[in-house]
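Final report, Chapter 2: Outcomes

The project's central promise was a pipeline that accepts a single protein chain and returns its three-dimensional structure in a standardized token representation, suitable for archiving and comparison. That pipeline is now operational. To close this chapter, we reproduce one record exactly as it appears in the project archive, with the input sequence first and the structure output second.
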Amino acid sequence: MLRQAVSKYDTVVYQRIISFNSSDSLFYVEDYFENGQIQMNGTYSSLDKNIKENYWCNFRGNTKQGLYQTWYKNGYPESKYNFIDGKKYGLCEEFYSNGQISDSGFWIPGNIEGNTRGMRHGNFKGWSKAGKLLYDFDYNYGLKINPTDTSYRYIIYTPSDYRSDTIKSYPLIIYLHGGSHRGSDLKQLYGYGIPDQIYRGREFPFIIAAPQCPLLLRWSTDNWFENFFSEITSKYRIDNNRVYLTGVSLGGSGTWYLAIKYPEKFAAIAPMCGFTSHIKYIYDNAQNLADIPIWAFHGETDLTVPVEETDRMIEKLKNKNNKIKYTRMPGVGHWVHWLVYPEQELYDWFLEFEK
């Protein structure tokens, strides 16, 4: 049995206890908060004891096998998942910190090589923190069956000369936020990414539109994009030949998905650190991106979405698309967007391309 205390300066972040059972060849792992409350209990068929990844996926050498549970510091459950060969399988549940279940649904491993997550396949339900049922959906290989035709709220930025020059049309950047900014409060969107730059007073030569994804959903859940695109292109003076798409994490995955589904809309895309193996449609239809300039970003030490999720797409496209850039950042985790959006290079790169 191995006991391991992980510290940051003089504060214990968690204590880990590892034992190996030779009869089933599994590692039994328990993590504890510094107050003694259990944080995680899971079994692994392979384990890098120095890596503590997030509960919804595996990180390289770690392969979850069987029941995997996590708890909040207050003792309430955080998640209860089942894994087979490192992929979610069967009924999986997540909870809010007040003990209320947030979502519950069925997963299958999927057959995409290197998939570290699995695919939604079957019934899924989601609840608010107060216990209100928010959705009851059925999924097929990661995509919702019978998606709802809907509209999402958004924030909009127009350049400083937009009102004075009433004839000029402008390039458009569509920005997709990450999972932590889902909900109904548009002010959340200013926390990071391009909206953060706008909030800081930065001026852009683009119109920038940032929609907000509802709580617990993904950018691929419902049919929202066509309504959104129709509204902003009719309401604002946008150059339809210079429409660009980018997003981070959940939004990075959404960037891959939307560009594959609507390749005719975009002059260039820039996905950042998003899952690509959780939806069979993304992998099966990657060839739709053959003519779109792509600049992808991912941190090599990302413990939330492994870098292999972007590697896979680049590898699949490398002989089909000669306009791909891939910035694979060593020593960088899931915060890659803080190194990209504040700089100028990406925006200059977008403006090199028209449809």
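Archive annotation: The chain has seven helices and 19 strands.
This record, like all others produced under the grant, will remain available to the consortium after the project formally closes.
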